[in-house]
Amino acid sequence: MRMKQLYAPTLKETPSDVETVSHEYLLRGGFIRKVAAGIYTYLPLGRRVLLKIENIVREEMNRIGAQEILMPILQPAELWKKSGRWDDYGPEMMKLKDRHGRDFTLGPTHEEIVTDLVKNELRSYRQLPLVVYQIANKYRDEIRPRFGLLRAREFVMKDAYSFHQDWKSLDETYELFKEAYSRIMERLNVKYMVIEAETGAIGGNASHEFVVPAKIGETNVLYCEKCGYQASDEKAEYKGSYPQEDEPEKPLEKVPTPNVRTIEEVSKFLGVSPRKIVKSLLFKGRDGYVMVLIRGDLELNEAKLKAHLKDQSLRLATPEEVLEDFGVPIGFIGPVGVDVKKVADYSIKGLKNFVVGGMEEDTHYVNANHSRDFKVDEWYDLRTVVEGDPCPVCGTPLKATKGIELGHIFKLGTKYSEAMKAYFTDENGELKPFIMGCYGWGVSRTMAAVVEHFHDENGMIWPLSVAPYTVIIDILNMNDPEQKQVGEELYRLLLDRGEEVVLDDREVSPGFKFKDADLIGFPIRVNVGKSLKDGVVELKKRYSKELVRVKIDNGYSLFLEILEKMKKEYDPKEANE
Known about the structure:
Blueprint: H1 21-28, E1 32-36, E2 39-42, H2 44-63, E3 67-68, E4 74-76, H3 77-83, H4 85-88, E5 94-97, E6 103-106, H5 111-119, E7 130-139, E8 154-164, H6 167-188, E9 193-196, E10 206-213, E11 219-223, E12 230-232, E13 253-256, H7 263-270, E14 278-285, E15 288-295, H8 302-309, E16 315-316, H9 319-326, E17 341-345, E18 354-357, E19 363-368, E20 378-380, E21 399-413, H10 415-419, E22 423-425, E23 431-433, E24 435-442, H11 443-453, E25 455-456, E26 459-460, E27 471-475, H12 481-496, E28 501-504, H13 510-520, E29 524-528, E30 536-541, E31 548-551, H14 557-569
Parallel strand pairs: 3-7, 15-17, 17-20, 27-28, 27-29
Antiparallel strand pairs: 1-2, 4-6, 5-6, 7-8, 8-24, 9-10, 10-21, 11-12, 11-21, 13-19, 14-15, 14-16, 18-19, 21-24, 22-23, 25-26, 29-30, 30-31
Helix pairs in contact: 1-11, 2-6, 2-11
């Protein structure tokens, strides 16, 4: 490809709405263009990278025996209603009606479609296990699309699904996917972590995320340096102890707290520690209201709450709903005298004489005690685990980091097969629901994650495995006939050898060419310039300052030898050292 022909409109200035390095460089480097918030067009460079990532994923899926299919993006609501997710999935689901008024969704995921497919095709245990996958566009109506490709409304994803007759078979396939996903990460050349994760709206019995550490990552990872435990903060369990207070119970008392709503304000006004205040959070789900109680100095983990209650539709009640249905401003809601289901975190089990909302504006109860003043229906671990909390395995204080989730695998069990009546006949002639697994990989967000992982102040540093082109040849003076001739000869030579090469034949300054080459991130640059008078061309790795001078007086064999050596030694991780 010649730069004169390549549609790669680079930008000198950083667009005003970028929030991350990958967003900036992919825009400036001419890889993507924004259509609307969270929606992008992939230009030729971006499409080449995307296809290379797809091919790595595809090769690893085929390697473990998965078979590629392609399912429709447009999905009828009836299937989602059978699984119970039409209302549970949440506002991220893009819903629409056809001309006949029938409900559809632009698929954010395909569990319903694939389950409906196989239930009409797989009849016997002899046809199992089966693993199918697709690489396709997905859609989620993010409330705030951000970070470029990392949180988009339209994105490319690989999703795979497995069907089994028993848990042993699922466990075997699950391990195959863990190995395949690890190989994908290794082929991308990135550091990664495999962490325990919450199943969320997908559901199931177990799940793991494959995460690339990054400062701007949206996955909070907790890990133990001693025993190797790793989990997302949505999944991490708290197994530390809570104090059991032995003070005598005091009479419940309602006190005025004018204009005091937050934990900090209540603590200061009443002169009590946040640990002696119980937050009352009102949620609304498919079965109505649920009041959640947790100690004032802790954060509620909503993922744990939804998992324990098996209701992904749960959401915080709005101030308007609380005022209308309970007659009190939201800052003064509390458990005393309120007839709703109450679930509590273990952190308040040992508390005595604590503060709760007074169920009247500008009032709170002091000296509240559960069992005496209100009943807790269910107890759970609902707190968000943070850095410094004890490891649930060995008790060592946990460390925290952030990461970008690229892969997520789930043991679904019979969640979808039972709901959608997808059965097979076992060896005894009995009908059994399929035991299922689900395995996702974010293809388009992988592009952004690699850039976040490998870059410098000048631009992107692509690993060879996903670089749009491997080599760029810069003719530094297009008015010099000898430079043009050698540049063309090298270009033809590499093309004939099957090399992915670009010839920068633009009539612009050498500095302009160097800046574009660094911004785009070509792994190896060949300079054809003034040194040609000495019979020399220069080779340079993207992340290195060293120029390797190669004599070409007697032909290009030494040049090809040095180029192959540089490719074998090329390691973008050296840029981060």
